[in-house]
């Protein structure tokens, strides 16, 4: 979750800076970091985890987009940069579902979640999903489009059933 | 004997691999003392350190997985020697052979001279380009 939140707010900062809507944004992390000798566009993609690079030396971007691809490993300190693809993609789905500038509603919900009382150092994906649902409900209401979209996003990536 | 290092993690989350196949007399003279000085059976189980590296090291049948801050002393020597040897092999083989699957592992260090868990600054390399504002060019000659 730590790595995912980092990516989400990095993407939001970039989109704010460039004045991009969720539809216009590239949703890439580290775009342009590689030289042209590497087959890849970026380190990670929130829009399509697992597609940022496919290189003979680096291998293929190993990120899953849904819980079906969750990686249980000691590599990468427990796959923190691998499995972050799942909550990353949930955020992307929420932002695109709501449309417009991602920082205005989707980002606000994520920010409310991490600054609220439901997220702790040991919060897992399901706990974070619940925190974002609670944040959406508090800010936008029980019947809101925002709460429905949050629930739908986490369901699509397989964190909520 | 095959000696291999796989490094995962770092803030970029990129996986790098280095491997060498070592034969006698080099194996006995240089590598075995180093391999045997590593505490393979005494690897601490430390809390995760997200954004730092995790190393998987193997030498023949032996293997160990350890976090970056434990890669010190003989472990550090073994990792560095493996990486340097892999790089050397790659340079020796380059004019003759097209890089294949196996050699691609060995090709890695040439393409990643900068450690990606550290700030990307300085001269740049083949993986990460030089940042223009950090040019170390001295600039145009100054009028004397």
Automatic annotation (TrEMBL), chain A:
GO terms for biological process: proteolysis. GO terms for molecular function: metalloendopeptidase activity. This is Metalloprotease. InterPro entries: Metalloprotease_M4, Peptidase_M4/M1_CTD_sf, Peptidase_M4_C_domain. It holds the Pfam family Peptidase_M4_C. Keywords: Hydrolase, Metalloprotease, Protease, Zinc. Residues 1-159 form the Peptidase M4 C-terminal domain. Gene3D superfamilies: Neutral Protease Domain 2. It comes from the Bacteria.
UniProtKB/TrEMBL annotation, chain B:
Residues 82-92 have a biased composition (Basic and acidic residues). Residues 82-144 are annotated as: Disordered. It comes from the Bacteria. InterPro entries: Emfourin. This is Uncharacterized protein. The lineage of its organism: Bacteria, Bacillati, Actinomycetota, Actinomycetes, Micrococcales.
